[in-house]
Amino acid sequence: MATDMTDAFDLLCFGEAMMELTRMSSGDYKAGFGGDTSNCAIAAARQGARCGYITAVGDDAFGRELLALWSGEGVVTDFARTDASAPTGLYIITPSPAGRDFAYYRAGSAASRYGAGDLPLEALRRTRIVQLSGISQAIGEGPLQAGERLIDAARAAGCDVAYDTNLRLKLWDLARARTVMHAAMARCTIALPSVDDSVILTGLDDPDAIADFYLALGPRIVALKLGEAGALIATPERRERIPAHPVTPVDATGAGDTFDGALLARIAAGDDPFTAAAYAAVAAALTTTGYGAVSPIPTGEEVAAARG
Questions:
Q1: pTM of the predicted protein model
Q2: What is the CATH number of the domain that holds 216?
Q3: DSSP H stretches of helix in the chain
Q4: What's the DSSP call for residue 177?
Q5: Measured between alpha carbons, how far is residue 137 from residues 159, 167, 213, 266 in Å?
Q6: Nearest partner of 144 among 186, 188, 114, 182, judged by Cα
Q7: pLDDT tens digits in sequence order for the chain, 308 residues long
Q8: CA 23, CA 13: separation in Å to the nearest integer?
Q9: Which DSSP category does 100 fall into?
Q10: Is 226 within a domain?
Q11: How far is CA 18 from CA 26, 51, 204, 280, 286, in A?
Q12: How distant, in Å, are the alpha carbons of 223, 252, 266 from that of 247?
């Protein structure tokens, strides 16, 4: 896709994207794409936001498929490096009524070798929001340092910084994850934790107490995702529970990422966080009605139709 680099970005996301295989009830595998911040960028783009993705992929078939995916979704690929000496990551999902089992094949991936010196810092001058996650930083020492530098540079450039915990204890130990994530939360402006992550990271189990904890670190908005219970949106002046949109779910993969992308797209469009979260709750719910992380992400038109 041709890219006009003079345009501003509503959202730049940073992290790792991977190929996805989902085991279907038939026993067959359905191919797709995943990666939390990639899902976020695609979700935002489907709501009409101008997005770009900061990452690295391998010089392989999977990497080329991801680049084609982003181009087709309108996500700018100028900041996606191709690393000829490392592969693109892969993961396998086995869904069940009780949840999902993930098997990852990402060790030594191209994205895990990304470093702070690879960041397109000049693009931050024309970016509204930067988004990253705990996974963005957990996959390697280079991405960890790149995430820290990205947060500092984005704040210096006047960007909002959105941070999703997305805790994965298979990638790092809890003490390290807590230290890095809380440092990031203290420097971000939009906190995007899930309640499950937050119980582990903070030791708190009451959603309001968790929101208070994160607000005290410094973000101006806390969007606490509560799964089937919806979301709690809190600012220093106001808080509101956002109910979940009723659907019949079959696979929750990527629902939180879709919530992030839809929320940030609407904030970039000028909505207040409560209005944006009500919209994002519908988008996230619709995502659970299909299999995989990307295919079921709704467009803005589909969200509007579901809202009535």
A1: 0.93
A2: 3.40.1190.20
A3: 36-46, 61-73, 134-138, 141-156, 174-187, 195-202, 207-217, 255-268, 273-287, 300-307
A4: H
A5: 19, 10, 22, 26
A6: 114
A7: 334 445 799 999 999 999 988 888 888 998 889 899 999 999 999 999 999 999 999 999 999 999 999 999 999 999 999 999 999 999 888 877 776 788 888 999 999 999 999 999 999 999 999 999 999 999 999 999 999 999 999 999 999 999 999 999 999 999 999 999 999 999 999 999 999 999 999 999 999 999 999 999 999 999 999 999 999 999 999 999 999 999 999 988 899 999 999 999 999 999 999 999 999 999 999 999 998 889 999 999 999 999 98
A8: 28
A9: E
A10: yes
A11: 23, 18, 32, 24, 22
A12: 21, 11, 22
Strand-pairing partners, residue 194, are: 225
Residue 218 carries which side chain, given as an amino acid letter?
A: G
> Are β-strands 190-191 and 99-105 bridged in parallel, bridged antiparallel, or unpaired?
unpaired
Tokens of 132: 């990253």
Q: Which of 142, 190, 193, 137 is nearest to 164 (CA)?
A: 193
Which residue in 127, 144, 206, 195 sits closest to 166, CA to CA?
Answer: 195
Dig out the tokens for 242 from the structure.
């956002």
Structural domain contains residue 238? yes
Read off φ and ψ for residue 101, nearest 5 degrees. Answer: -105, 130
**Range of 150's domain?**
13-297
Q: Please indicate, yes or no, if residue 150 is contained in any of the structural domains.
A: yes
The reply to whether 82 falls in a domain is yes
CB 54 within 8 A of CB 69: no
From 14, 3, 35, select the one nearest 124 (Cα to Cα): 14
In this structure, which long-range contacts are made by residues 275-281, counting pairs with CB atoms below 8 Å and at least 24 apart in sequence?
277/223, 277/231, 277/233, 277/240, 277/242, 278/242, 279/303, 279/307, 280/223, 280/231, 281/230, 281/231, 281/242, 281/243, 281/244, 281/245
Q: How many separate domains does the chain show? A: 1
Q: Assess contact for 198 and 224: CB atoms under 8 A.
A: yes
**CA pair distance 285, 245, nearest whole angstrom:** 6
